[in-house]
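Project outcomes to date are best conveyed with an example. Our students and postdoctoral researchers have been running inverse folding experiments weekly, and each run begins with a structure described purely in tokens. The record below, which covers 110 residues, was selected by the lab manager from last quarter's runs and is presented without edits.
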């Protein structure tokens, strides 16, 4: 059981995680390339910002409510909106907001 596990930046390339409960696990910047996530629970508020899901098997994976951003890499043809995932944006400082697109100016750090 990996419920609420801190896997930030973990290298899980080609891992067999079939049926795992990863709900609310921190998967920010995790490498899930080619991982078998079939029938996994990644829903709730599981953060996938910056995660690499290239070639990951997402058949019957529960992703409802999981978060992602522009840096999250999905398998070709995968639409996170159809999986009811929630897009997030990076907060940014006034200086960074000038240079970065995709940051949330509403949550600008002052």
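After processing, the design step wrote out the following sequence:
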């Amino acid at each position: 059981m990996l419920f609420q596990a801190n896997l930030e930046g973990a290298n899980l390339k080609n891992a067999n995680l079939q049926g795992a409960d990863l709900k609310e696990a921190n998967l920010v910047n995790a490498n899930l390339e080619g991982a078998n996530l079939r029938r996994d629970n990644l829903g709730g508020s599981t953060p996938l910002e910056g995660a690499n899901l290239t070639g990951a098997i997402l058949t019957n994976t529960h992703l409802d409510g999981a978060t992602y951003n522009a840096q999250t890499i999905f398998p070709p043809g995968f639409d996170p909106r159809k999986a009811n995932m929630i897009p997030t944006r990076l907060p940014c400082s006034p200086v960074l907001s000038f240079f970065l697109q995709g940051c949330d100016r509403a949550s600008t750090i002052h």
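Confidence is low (pLDDT under 50) at residues 105-110. The helical segments are 94-99. The training component of this project remains on track.
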